[in-house]
Amino acid sequence: MFLLSSLALFSAATAGIADAEANRVNYSNCLTDFTVTHLDQKTERKVFKKAAAEACLDERNAMLTAMKKDELEFGSTEQEAVDYATEEADGVLFAFVGGYSGYMSSNTRPVKE
């Protein structure tokens, strides 16, 4: 009986992690498309940085929701879950904003996951 309960709990946790990861990939892929568009338009870095913060909000919110849910299931407090999810989503955004100048100078483009 204990084994069945443990397996059910593990399966639920694994599903939550997979959902959070899928939403992270969706957000990243959306930002990839957004970044490529701006690179093609030769948007200035500071303009891109400001626009990127408002890009892909539906995907970002889905990622935040999934990550928060996963963290709550892991046993985090509400605030810990919100902070963690926000930090993770900000990290995805930062990677694109931080890499924008490099893409521009090398004339390369990010690729989807």
Reconstruct the topology from this structure.
Layout: H1 2-40, H2 45-52, H3 57-74, H4 78-106
Helix pairs in contact: 1-3, 1-4, 2-4, 3-4
Task: Explain what you see.
The chain is mainly α and 113 residues long. 83% of the residues lie in helices and 0% in strands. It is built from 4 helices and no strands. The chain has helices spanning 2-40, 45-52, 57-74, 78-106. Helix 1 runs parallel beside helix 4 and helix 2 (45-52) runs antiparallel to helix 4. It is elongated. Mean pLDDT is 90; it is low at 2-13.
Attribute tags:
mainly alpha; 113 residues; disordered N terminus; 0% strand; 4 helices; 83% helix
Low-confidence stretches: 2-13
**What form results from the Cα inertia axes?**
elongated
Give the number of DSSP strands: 0
* Biggest pleated-sheet summary: none
Order of helices and strands: HHHH
Estimate what percentage of residues fall within beta strands.
Answer: under 5%
Could you tell me the mean pLDDT?
A: 90
Oligomer: single chain
**Tally of individual helices:** 4
Helical percentage? over 70%
